[in-house]
Amino acid sequence: MNSEDVQVEIERFNTANDDASFSPESIAAILGVSLSWLQKKRCEGGGIPFSKLHYRKIIYKKADVLAYIERQRIQSTSQMAV
Description:
Elements: H1 3-15, E1 21-22, H2 24-31, H3 35-44, E2 51-54, E3 57-61, H4 62-71
Antiparallel strand pairs: 1-3, 2-3
Helix pairs in contact: 1-2
């Protein structure tokens, strides 16, 4: 995705309701992470909750993405896991 596409996805995410579904590609662009990071977190756990509609279709709900971001909040660098 180019930077213009990313901005479009961010705007679509921000204006969507909390039940809206997003593809892994959209979430990776919105959060600035790689698709492989999302895939790794789906396998290992500890990432954003997702739904697997069939063996190739994965979606993320906006509410789950926002809740994940909230859980990642810290007050100081001393709270960061090493």
